[in-house]
Amino acid sequence: VPDVDAVLVPVGGAGLIAGIAVAVKTLKPQVKIIAVESDSCPSYTEAVKAGKPVMARVKSTLADGLAVPMVGGNSLATLEGLVDKTVVVCEESTALAILRLIEMEKAVVEGGGAVGVAALISDKLPELKGKKVVTILTGGNIDTTVLGRTIERGLAVDGRLIRVEVVVSDRPGGIAELTSQIAHMGASIKDIFHERAWIATDVFSVRTYETL
């Protein structure tokens, strides 16, 4: 991209962004370098605050490739003055980014590689609107079972998968009336669960949970 305005780079141990930042800033100093990391392991953010590599807390994250508790000392020193902005993204945005990449780009990208897209779709970088932006998709190493759960999480974040709780009559026709109303709204039932034992109303009612 000859006229790129900004490059978004996922950050774990900071080696990748150090190399990219040196190359880009050497060739085109005006291009913005933006570091993106998961809020489940903000090791680069903590290192910048402390002025040296420090141990950051690490939580379970979709961006497991970025879950490095301490950035490299050489990388941190190299990056001084080269990173224009650092953005931290949440798990929900990362899941939605993975979903967007599958749907729009037909690309399966792991969580660590999708954080740049997550930063863009979560409006963390409004100053880049209308600009030419490169985001590094660092890999597609995501387990298929995790991918399935991630797609569902992304659909929920996007408001395309919802869960509702409804108390209906436990007499014949109660569930049929509920499903008829759901169909009338144009929704499809993905899952339905009934609960009778712990309902506080009369014994002729049932609490239902629907995933639509």
TrEMBL record:
Which GO biological process categories is it annotated with? Answer: isoleucine biosynthetic process; L-serine catabolic process; L-threonine catabolic process
Please verify whether the record's keywords include Lyase.
yes
Name the cofactor(s). Answer: pyridoxal 5'-phosphate
* Keyword Transmembrane applies: yes
> What Pfam families does this protein map onto?
PALP (PF00291)
Instruction: Give the InterPro entries listed for this entry.
Output: Ser/Thr_Dehydratase, TrpB-like_PALP, TrpB-like_PALP_sf
The GO molecular function terms of this record are: L-serine ammonia-lyase activity; threonine deaminase activity
Q: Which residues form the Tryptophan synthase beta chain-like PALP domain?
A: 2-139
- Signal peptide span: none
Recite the UniProt keywords alphabetically: Lyase, Membrane, Pyridoxal phosphate, Transmembrane, Transmembrane helix
Q: Which residues cross the membrane?
A: 6-24
What protein name is recorded for this chain? Answer: L-serine deaminase
What organism does the record attribute this protein to? Answer: Oesophagostomum dentatum (Nodular worm)
